[in-house]
Design a protein that fits this description.
Chitinase A, domain 3, Triger factor/SurA peptide-binding fold, 342 residues, alpha+beta
Length: 342
């Protein structure tokens, strides 16, 4: 089985639990058989309808929900028949990949506790349930795209230059680069003696101002930021819209560095983490990005690349929805579906 994943709207596989003989009376609605017989009851439909209403609102009707449950069951049976299953190791790999994506978005490593918290906050489920969910999602997407592979071969899925340019013109005002600065710093920790740290930082700044030492030399001799010592104090780009850094470093630090011009060295600046002598190597004003511009100073992707990928994914998503409906139609035609009530 090809392990090809197409990013689309999540699809949830319905799980039907067999009830023991002594359970409460149930009302059978539909008997389905593709590879095995499964009955959907009124009670199961009521329960699923309530879940759908929580996600999509009260306007959803039971006929729509029942059709979705039938489709889910047929798809589950077909996937089982055709060997579309994942091992626990493969499920773990999918979860790890999802964790890496989230870490890339938040810009740092997550502890297990932080990862579990983010999953719960966004999905309302624990890690084990989320792991099973993304595994099912992956399998459905892979199955549909493989069973209907011919529908994804259309060359028209790749947007043309004229389509990309037309999209850019309509949405040009959305492609804005905020004000940015590229920073290097000499860092002095507060430790237990804040006054001593300030005195040390002030002495180093006076040496730089008097020409006794260069900024770069002062980094290697005095900075207490081990991560940036070997890169002349370089700590990368800071965007004026970066609220996370502003919260972490403090508003004073944030405001002071954006007052600096390119190649200017600051006075001693206090942040929530310590004292800094900052040098700005680049100060870029906010601007509307051109098609050939990078989406941000730290990215290699251009606006053109971004739009091309966005439009391609839109096209793929549209084809996927058609492929899914076509596959469900095929499964319904080959299955036995008997409605047990009028």
């Amino acid at each position: 089985m090809k392990r090809r994943l197409i990013t689309v709207l999540a699809l949830v596989i319905a799980i039907v639990f067999a009830m023991p003989a002594f359970s409460a009376i149930t009302t059978p609605l539909v008997r389905i058989n593709l590879t095995k017989t499964v009955v959907i009851t009124q009670e199961e439909l009521d329960e699923k309808t309530e879940l759908y209403k929580q996600s999509y609102g009260d306007n959803i009707d039971q006929a729509t929900v029942l059709d979705a449950m039938i489709s889910d069951e047929l798809l589950a049976q077909a996937m089982e028949r055709d060997g579309y299953v994942l091992t626990d190791e493969q499920k773990d790999e999918l979860l790890a990949s999802q964790r890496q994506n989230i870490e890339a978005q938040v810009g740092g490593k997550l502890t297990d506790e932080m990862f579990e918290y983010l999953i719960y906050q966004n999905t309302g489920t624990d890690i084990a349930t989320y792991r099973d969910y993304i595994a099912e999602q992956y399998l459905v997407q892979a199955y549909v795209s493989n069973m209907k592979a011919d529908m994804f071969q259309d060359e028209g899925l790749v947007p043309t230059d004229s389509e990309i340019e037309a999209f850019y013109k309509k949405n040009k005002s959305s492609f804005i680069s905020p004000e940015n600065v590229k920073l290097s710093h000499i860092y002095f920790k507060f430790n237990d003696n804040k006054e001593a740290a300030l005195k040390k930082a002030t002495d180093v700044l006076n040496q730089i101002r008097s020409g006794k030492i260069t900024f770069e030399k002062a980094v290697t001799q005095y900075s207490e930021d081990e991560d940036s010592i070997n890169t002349a104090g370089d700590i990368g780009w800071l965007s004026i819209s970066d609220s996370d850094t502003q919260q972490y470093m403090g508003e004073n630090f944030f405001n002071k560095v954006f007052e600096l011009d390119a190649d200017e060295i600051s006075d001693v600046i206090e942040s929530l983490a310590g004292y800094h002598i900052v040098k700005v190597s680049v100060h870029s004003d906010a601007k509307i990005l051109a098609l050939t511009d990078k989406t941000s100073p730290t990215e290699t992707t251009t606006v053109y690349d971004y739009i091309k990928s966005y439009l391609y994914n839109q096209n793929i998503n549209s084809v996927y929805q058609s492929a899914f409906l076509s596959l469900i139609s095929d499964l319904k035609a080959s299955a036995s579906i008997k409605y047990l009530t009028k």
